[in-house]
Specification:
Elements: E1 2-7, H1 10-26, E2 29-34, E3 38-45, E4 48-59, H2 60-63, E5 66-70, E6 78-83, H3 84-90, E7 99-109, E8 111-120, E9 128-135, E10 137-138, E11 157-160, H4 164-174, E12 180-186, E13 190-196, E14 201-206, E15 211-214, E16 223-229, H5 230-236, E17 248-252, E18 256-262, E19 266-273
Antiparallel strand pairs: 1-5, 1-7, 2-3, 2-6, 3-4, 4-19, 6-10, 7-8, 8-9, 11-15, 11-17, 12-13, 12-16, 13-14, 17-18, 18-19
Helix pairs in contact: 1-3, 4-5
Length: 277
């Protein structure tokens, strides 16, 4: 079992760091699944370990200058878990302009580690090497089935979200009113975010959104809603750091709010289960 990768493009280093930062807001631990062509970042639902809450896939050729791995079994993969906050902390130099190379490799230092090496230009010397060892737990092949690609239920409706910065600003204010957010999408391209408590009900309406898909509907008044934890949705909205062109929002009536980012180099899916009213 061997893994070694190197990123030299400044944009790719910042993008990888931003993805890790987003995940650090959404979960405590992440599973890295490595294959010969893809790097997966996977998080399980903390209240139900049988459900995946984050599924992110990076194309290794788009991110890595060098990528060498030898995995296990015929599928040639490696799976291990690690604390996402430690990974985010070790990559913090990725936002600096003097970072020249970001290297990652699996090492054995009394216990398995993911070693991060950051090669920075220094005014004092020709270069400065910063190394972080993150302890990892290797996942055995018999347990890999828990980290396969999740089956996504058919969405009732999918739209392009409004400006994520605007949505985040509004949702952060709504958190003071109540813990549950009602997300409603309708076939006219409207999104309604609602929150309430014993003394007040507040709704915010976004109109004219682009509809990506709608399931079996000819009625322009069709509405689909789900209720989610407002804090968890707010945490996802920190993904504005990626400077995205668009984010898709999908609703499965009463069951699921699914947000997806689909870029050429990577995709990221966030699944937020519906809660009872």
């Amino acid at each position: 079992m061997k893994f070694r990768g190197k990123i030299i493009d400044p944009h790719c280093m910042k993008q990888f760091y931003s993805i890790v930062i987003i995940l650090s807001k959404l979960c405590r631990n992440v599973v890295l699944r490595l294959s010969s062509t893809k790097l997966y970042l996977i998080a399980s639902n903390e209240s139900n370990s049988n459900q995946i809450s984050v599924w992110s896939v990076l194309d290794q050729q788009s991110f890595f200058k060098d990528y060498d791995m030898i995995g296990e079994t015929e599928s040639n993969e490696i799976l291990f878990s690690l604390p996402i906050d430690m990974l985010a902390s070790s990559l913090s130099s990725a936002k600096q302009t003097n970072l020249k190379t970001l290297k990652m490799k699996l090492t054995d230092k009394l216990s398995p580690c993911l070693t991060i090496e950051l090669d920075l230009e220094s005014q004092v010397s020709s270069k400065q090497l910063c190394t972080h060892d993150i302890p990892v737990s290797v996942i055995l092949p018999k347990d890999w089935s828990a980290y396969k690609e999740p089956t996504i239920p058919a969405h009732n409706i999918s739209v392009v979200m409004p400006s994520i910065r605007v949505v985040r600003h509004i949702v952060d204010k709504m958190k003071r009113i109540g813990p549950r957010l009602i997300v409603t999408l309708d076939s006219s391209g409207k999104m309604v975010l609602g929150v309430s408590n014993l003394s007040a009900t507040v709704d915010t309406h976004f109109i004219g959104l682009e509809i990506v898909s709608i399931h079996n509907s000819t009625d322009k008044e069709n509405k689909y809603s789900t209720i989610v934890d407002i804090k968890k949705f707010s945490q996802f909205l920190n993904c504005e750091t990626l400077n995205l062109s668009k984010i898709l929002c999908h609703v499965v009536e009463g069951m699921l709010l699914h947000c997806s980012i689909e870029e050429d180099e990577y995709v990221l899916h966030y699944f937020l289960s519906g809660i009872d009213d």
